[in-house]
Amino acid sequence: MSTFKLIEIAETKQRLQSEEAILVDTRDAQSFAADHAEGAFHLTNETLKEFVDKVEFDTPVFVVCYHGNSSKGVAQYLAEQGYEDVYSVEGGMSMWRQMYPLTASES
């Protein structure tokens, strides 16, 4: 059975800058609109098909939520769908926000 791995925020940020990878943010629409990491894909039930159509299965996928808990379930789901290199970001956006500036959504 495919599974995900845990990853720290600093390593996530470094890997996003050095390789072709994608950060997915699973928080609710209001929280995502208020702030999110630059380039993050807002993954919801409504955007899942777009994500699968857009992102190759061999692309590293980093999943972030509020505190690093619910991202584990989403990361496991993506691994089970065939994504080969999936991570749950420890500490979530609450810790990311403390370490790096965030971007408000363009409306």
Q: Helices and strands: which structural class?
A: alpha/beta
Label the CATH architecture: 3-Layer(aba) Sandwich
Helix content: 25-40%
Task: Supply the CATH superfamily name.
Answer: Rhodanese-like domain
Per the principal axes of the C-alpha atoms, what is the gross shape? globular
The number of distinct helices, counting runs of at least 4 residues, comes to 5
What letter string, H or E per element, gives the SSE order?
Answer: EHEHEHEHEH
Q: Main β-sheet: number of strands, strand sense, barrel status? A: 5 strands, parallel
CATH class: Alpha Beta
Beta-strand segment tally: 5
User: Whole-number average pLDDT?
Assistant: 93
Oligomer: single chain
Strand order of the largest sheet: 1-5-4-2-3
Q: Give me the Rg, rounded.
A: 13 Å
Q: Strand content of the residues, in percent?
A: 15-25%
Poorly predicted runs of 5 or more residues: none
**CATH fold field value:** Oxidized Rhodanese, domain 1
What is the domain tally? 1
Rounded to the nearest angstrom, the distance between the terminal CA atoms is: 40 Å
Quick summary:
The protein is α/β, with parallel strands linked by helices.
